[in-house]
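Whiteboard transcription, Tuesday session. T.W. wrote the structure tokens on the left side:
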């Protein structure tokens, strides 16, 4: 395997690392916005996040295709196998770069996963708070919304609010 055949893989990994770092930064901004009240900014972040995720998916597909063209499988172990094989002095720097970028990509994507999980928990908390507020308006109780046989709420407060 020569340096020329490894360049597309190195380039794709460079792009994946850049996109994953951008996603990680975006998730940090999203977290800050989720604790605030600017719903428009949260929607803007969601659109940016969707675009970055689409970019990452495209790059992942490209990386897998490149590995296939190199005669390897597309699993994580295939990059490790590529790097650990015996190579000449000309390919060693490129392989070292590939290995470093691969490790960076894996670590950054793990950080993104954790940040996304935290953001999801924040969204869940906000949803529960809104549900409790709506229940309070409907029933006078934050956690107790009951429905009658007709499927309607049985709270006289809810009926009173509906007339108002």
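and on the right, the sequence the group agreed on:
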């Amino acid at each position: 395997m020569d340096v020329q055949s490894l360049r597309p893989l190195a380039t794709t990994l460079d792009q994946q690392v850049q996109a994953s770092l951008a996603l990680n930064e975006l998730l940090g901004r999203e977290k800050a916005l989720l604790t605030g009240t600017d719903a428009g900014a949260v929607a803007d972040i969601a659109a940016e996040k969707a675009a970055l995720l689409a970019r990452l998916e495209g790059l992942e597909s490209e990386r897998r295709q490149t590995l296939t063209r190199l005669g390897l499988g597309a699993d994580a172990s295939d990059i490790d196998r590529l790097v650990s094989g015996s190579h000449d002095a000309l390919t060693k720097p490129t392989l070292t770069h590939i290995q470093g970028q691969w490790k960076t990509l894996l670590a950054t994507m793990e950080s993104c996963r954790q940040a996304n999980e935290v953001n999801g928990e924040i969204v869940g908390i906000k949803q529960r708070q809104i549900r409790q507020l709506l229940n309070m308006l409907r029933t006078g109780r934050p956690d107790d919304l009951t429905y009658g046989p007709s499927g309607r709420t049985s709270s006289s407060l809810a009926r009173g609010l509906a007339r108002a």
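Someone added at the bottom: The longest helix spans residues 92-139.
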